[in-house]
Amino acid sequence: MASTSAVGPSSAMKEPRNWLLMPDELMENILGRLSSVEKLRSAGQVCRTWRRICKDPAMWKVIDINKWQDGCDKNYKIEMLTKQAVDLSCGELIDISIGGFCTDDLLDYIVLRSRKLKRLDLWSCDHIGDSGFSWAIKKLSQLEELEFSYIFISVEDIEVIGQNCPQLKSFKVFDVIYTRPYIEYDDLAVAIANNMPGLRHLQIYGHEMTNDGLKAILNGCPLLQSLDVRE
Protein backbone atom coordinates (compact mmCIF):
# COMPACT_ATOMS: atom_id res chain seq x y z
CA MET A 1 0.00 0.00 0.00
CA ALA A 2 1.52 3.34 -1.02
CA SER A 3 2.04 5.81 1.77
CA THR A 4 1.08 9.44 1.46
CA SER A 5 3.68 11.84 2.81
CA ALA A 6 2.42 14.90 4.72
CA VAL A 7 3.39 18.31 3.47
CA GLY A 8 5.14 20.20 6.28
CA PRO A 9 5.15 23.96 6.88
CA SER A 10 8.62 24.28 5.41
CA SER A 11 7.56 22.94 2.05
CA ALA A 12 4.18 24.62 1.83
CA MET A 13 3.79 27.54 -0.50
CA LYS A 14 3.48 30.80 1.42
CA GLU A 15 0.78 33.11 0.24
CA PRO A 16 2.07 36.51 -0.90
CA ARG A 17 1.52 39.25 1.63
CA ASN A 18 -1.07 41.87 0.74
CA TRP A 19 0.65 45.13 1.63
CA LEU A 20 -2.60 47.04 1.19
CA LEU A 21 -3.87 45.40 4.39
CA MET A 22 -1.17 47.17 6.35
CA PRO A 23 -2.62 49.48 9.06
CA ASP A 24 -3.05 53.07 7.89
CA GLU A 25 -0.84 54.36 10.70
CA LEU A 26 2.09 52.27 9.46
CA MET A 27 1.46 53.16 5.83
CA GLU A 28 1.32 56.86 6.73
CA ASN A 29 4.63 56.52 8.57
CA ILE A 30 6.26 54.95 5.50
CA LEU A 31 4.84 57.37 2.93
CA GLY A 32 5.59 60.30 5.22
CA ARG A 33 9.31 59.63 4.72
CA LEU A 34 9.06 60.46 1.02
CA SER A 35 9.82 63.94 -0.23
CA SER A 36 6.94 66.29 -0.94
CA VAL A 37 7.49 65.99 -4.70
CA GLU A 38 7.62 62.16 -4.53
CA LYS A 39 4.29 62.09 -2.74
CA LEU A 40 2.75 64.43 -5.30
CA ARG A 41 4.16 62.92 -8.50
CA SER A 42 4.63 59.23 -7.70
CA ALA A 43 3.23 57.72 -4.50
CA GLY A 44 -0.22 59.21 -4.92
CA GLN A 45 -0.54 57.56 -8.34
CA VAL A 46 0.21 53.99 -7.22
CA CYS A 47 -3.20 52.88 -5.94
CA ARG A 48 -6.37 54.14 -4.29
CA THR A 49 -5.07 53.46 -0.79
CA TRP A 50 -1.87 55.42 -1.33
CA ARG A 51 -3.77 58.19 -3.07
CA ARG A 52 -6.17 58.46 -0.12
CA ILE A 53 -3.31 58.60 2.37
CA CYS A 54 -1.36 61.12 0.29
CA LYS A 55 -4.39 63.41 0.24
CA ASP A 56 -4.70 63.40 4.03
CA PRO A 57 -4.00 66.95 5.34
CA ALA A 58 -1.91 65.38 8.12
CA MET A 59 0.62 64.35 5.45
CA TRP A 60 1.11 67.99 4.49
CA LYS A 61 1.78 69.70 7.79
CA VAL A 62 5.44 69.85 6.68
CA ILE A 63 6.38 70.72 3.09
CA ASP A 64 9.97 70.72 1.82
CA ILE A 65 10.59 71.40 -1.87
CA ASN A 66 14.04 71.99 -3.34
CA LYS A 67 14.15 72.99 -7.01
CA TRP A 68 17.50 71.32 -7.70
CA GLN A 69 17.24 68.29 -5.43
CA ASP A 70 13.76 67.37 -6.67
CA GLY A 71 14.74 67.57 -10.34
CA CYS A 72 12.13 70.12 -11.43
CA ASP A 73 13.65 72.30 -14.14
CA LYS A 74 10.68 74.50 -14.96
CA ASN A 75 9.78 77.10 -12.33
CA TYR A 76 6.09 77.09 -13.28
CA LYS A 77 5.89 73.32 -12.75
CA ILE A 78 7.44 73.31 -9.31
CA GLU A 79 5.34 76.32 -8.28
CA MET A 80 2.25 74.38 -9.38
CA LEU A 81 3.33 71.39 -7.28
CA THR A 82 3.96 73.60 -4.26
CA LYS A 83 0.51 75.18 -4.53
CA GLN A 84 -0.99 71.71 -4.83
CA ALA A 85 0.79 70.64 -1.63
CA VAL A 86 -0.42 73.75 0.20
CA ASP A 87 -3.99 73.05 -0.94
CA LEU A 88 -3.77 69.47 0.32
CA SER A 89 -2.74 70.75 3.77
CA CYS A 90 -6.20 72.34 4.14
CA GLY A 91 -4.82 75.08 6.37
CA GLU A 92 -2.89 72.69 8.64
CA LEU A 93 0.56 73.58 7.26
CA ILE A 94 2.99 74.47 10.07
CA ASP A 95 6.42 74.12 8.41
CA ILE A 96 7.53 74.92 4.85
CA SER A 97 10.97 75.03 3.21
CA ILE A 98 11.44 76.30 -0.35
CA GLY A 99 14.73 76.36 -2.21
CA GLY A 100 15.52 78.18 -5.41
CA PHE A 101 12.22 79.30 -6.88
CA CYS A 102 9.83 81.14 -4.53
CA THR A 103 8.18 84.28 -5.93
CA ASP A 104 5.96 87.01 -4.49
CA ASP A 105 2.95 85.26 -6.00
CA LEU A 106 3.79 81.89 -4.46
CA LEU A 107 4.61 83.37 -1.05
CA ASP A 108 1.30 85.22 -1.17
CA TYR A 109 -0.50 81.97 -2.04
CA ILE A 110 1.12 80.12 0.87
CA VAL A 111 0.46 82.81 3.46
CA LEU A 112 -3.22 83.24 2.61
CA ARG A 113 -3.80 79.49 3.14
CA SER A 114 -1.45 78.78 6.04
CA ARG A 115 -2.33 80.92 9.04
CA LYS A 116 -0.99 78.23 11.41
CA LEU A 117 2.50 78.41 9.91
CA LYS A 118 5.19 78.22 12.60
CA ARG A 119 8.34 77.73 10.52
CA LEU A 120 9.40 79.32 7.22
CA ASP A 121 12.68 78.52 5.46
CA LEU A 122 13.55 80.28 2.19
CA TRP A 123 16.85 80.08 0.34
CA SER A 124 18.12 81.34 -3.00
CA CYS A 125 14.73 82.88 -3.76
CA ASP A 126 15.78 85.93 -5.76
CA HIS A 127 12.29 86.74 -7.05
CA ILE A 128 10.82 87.84 -3.72
CA GLY A 129 10.60 91.63 -3.52
CA ASP A 130 10.70 93.78 -0.39
CA SER A 131 7.01 94.65 -0.60
CA GLY A 132 5.97 91.04 -1.14
CA PHE A 133 8.05 89.85 1.79
CA SER A 134 6.76 92.58 4.13
CA TRP A 135 3.14 91.83 3.20
CA ALA A 136 3.63 88.11 3.86
CA ILE A 137 5.36 88.54 7.21
CA LYS A 138 2.53 90.75 8.47
CA LYS A 139 0.18 87.75 8.01
CA LEU A 140 2.36 85.26 9.93
CA SER A 141 1.79 86.19 13.56
CA GLN A 142 2.17 82.54 14.66
CA LEU A 143 5.68 82.22 13.24
CA GLU A 144 8.23 80.76 15.68
CA GLU A 145 11.16 79.93 13.36
CA LEU A 146 12.42 81.90 10.38
CA GLU A 147 15.40 81.04 8.21
CA PHE A 148 16.91 82.77 5.17
CA SER A 149 19.83 81.60 3.05
CA TYR A 150 21.43 83.59 0.23
CA ILE A 151 18.69 86.21 0.41
CA PHE A 152 19.42 89.86 1.15
CA ILE A 153 17.84 90.97 4.42
CA SER A 154 17.62 94.67 5.26
CA VAL A 155 17.22 96.51 8.54
CA GLU A 156 13.67 97.35 7.49
CA ASP A 157 12.95 93.63 7.01
CA ILE A 158 14.19 92.92 10.54
CA GLU A 159 11.92 95.63 11.91
CA VAL A 160 8.87 94.21 10.07
CA ILE A 161 9.63 90.72 11.38
CA GLY A 162 10.07 91.93 14.96
CA GLN A 163 6.87 93.97 14.91
CA ASN A 164 4.66 91.26 13.40
CA CYS A 165 6.06 87.96 14.72
CA PRO A 166 5.90 88.26 18.52
CA GLN A 167 6.33 84.49 19.01
CA LEU A 168 9.56 84.26 17.01
CA LYS A 169 12.08 82.13 18.91
CA SER A 170 14.59 81.11 16.24
CA PHE A 171 16.11 83.32 13.54
CA LYS A 172 18.78 82.17 11.09
CA VAL A 173 20.39 84.19 8.34
CA PHE A 174 22.93 82.53 6.04
CA ASP A 175 24.32 85.37 3.98
CA VAL A 176 27.83 84.38 2.93
CA ILE A 177 28.25 87.58 0.94
CA TYR A 178 31.73 88.99 1.41
CA THR A 179 32.71 92.51 0.48
CA ARG A 180 36.12 93.55 -0.82
CA PRO A 181 37.61 95.40 0.91
CA TYR A 182 36.24 94.18 4.25
CA ILE A 183 33.48 96.49 5.56
CA GLU A 184 32.33 96.30 9.17
CA TYR A 185 28.56 96.53 9.49
CA ASP A 186 26.56 96.51 12.74
CA ASP A 187 23.17 97.83 11.58
CA LEU A 188 21.64 94.37 11.12
CA ALA A 189 22.86 93.17 14.51
CA VAL A 190 21.50 96.28 16.21
CA ALA A 191 18.15 95.85 14.41
CA ILE A 192 17.93 92.27 15.71
CA ALA A 193 18.77 93.43 19.23
CA ASN A 194 16.11 96.16 19.11
CA ASN A 195 13.30 94.14 17.51
CA MET A 196 13.69 90.47 18.54
CA PRO A 197 13.99 90.37 22.34
CA GLY A 198 12.26 86.98 22.61
CA LEU A 199 14.80 85.01 20.55
CA ARG A 200 16.11 81.75 21.99
CA HIS A 201 18.26 80.77 19.01
CA LEU A 202 20.13 83.08 16.64
CA GLN A 203 22.44 82.19 13.80
CA ILE A 204 24.07 84.83 11.61
CA TYR A 205 26.40 83.18 9.13
CA GLY A 206 28.75 85.26 7.00
CA HIS A 207 27.96 88.69 8.42
CA GLU A 208 30.64 91.28 9.10
CA MET A 209 29.55 92.62 12.48
CA THR A 210 31.95 93.97 15.08
CA ASN A 211 32.16 93.43 18.83
CA ASP A 212 29.70 96.32 19.23
CA GLY A 213 27.09 94.46 17.18
CA LEU A 214 27.66 91.31 19.19
CA LYS A 215 27.29 93.19 22.49
CA ALA A 216 24.05 94.76 21.24
CA ILE A 217 22.63 91.30 20.52
CA LEU A 218 23.66 89.92 23.92
CA ASN A 219 22.08 92.89 25.68
CA GLY A 220 18.95 93.07 23.55
CA CYS A 221 18.17 89.32 23.45
CA PRO A 222 18.44 88.18 27.09
CA LEU A 223 16.63 84.86 26.49
CA LEU A 224 19.21 83.50 24.01
CA GLN A 225 20.13 79.86 24.53
CA SER A 226 22.34 79.51 21.46
CA LEU A 227 24.25 82.00 19.31
CA ASP A 228 26.19 81.20 16.14
CA VAL A 229 28.14 83.98 14.41
CA ARG A 230 30.46 82.00 12.16
CA GLU A 231 32.40 83.64 9.31
Largest sheet: 7 strands, parallel
Portion in helices:
25-40%
Number of domains: 2
Strand content: 5-15%
Task: Assign an overall shape.
Answer: elongated
Uncertain segments:
176-180
Count the E strands. 7
CATH architecture of the largest domain: Alpha-Beta Horseshoe
CATH class of the largest domain: Alpha Beta
Number of helices: 9
CATH topology of the largest domain: Leucine-rich repeat, LRR (right-handed beta-alpha superhelix)
Structural class: alpha/beta
Task: Give the N-to-C terminal Cα separation.
Answer: 90 Å
Secondary-structure element order, N to C: HHHEHEHEHEHEHEHE
Task: Walk across the major sheet and give the strand order.
Answer: 1-2-3-4-5-6-7
Gyration radius from CA atoms, angstroms = 24 Å
Q: Could you report the average pLDDT, rounded to the nearest whole number?
A: 83
Pfam families: F-box-like (PF12937), LRR_6 (PF13516)
Protein name: F-box domain-containing protein
GO molecular function: SCF ubiquitin ligase complex binding
InterPro entries: F-box_dom, Leu-rich_rpt, LRR_dom_sf
Descriptive account of the structure:
Pfam families: F-box-like, LRR_6. By secondary structure, this protein is an alpha/beta fold. It has two domains: 21-168, Leucine-rich repeat, LRR (right-handed beta-alpha superhelix); 169-231, no CATH class. It is built from nine helices and seven strands. A seven-stranded parallel β-sheet has the order 1-2-3-4-5-6-7, covered by helices on one side. α5 (104-112) runs parallel beside α6 (130-137), α6 runs parallel beside α7 and α8 packs parallel to α9. It is elongated.
